[in-house]
Amino acid sequence: MPSKSKRKNSAERILAVIGAVISIIFGILLIATLPGLIGPLIIHGLPLNIIWGILVIVFGIIILTSYGVVKIGPKVGHDWPILIILGVLSLIFGGDIGAIIIIIAGIIALARTLS
Question: In this model, does residue 33 exceed pLDDT 90?
Answer without folding.
Answer: no
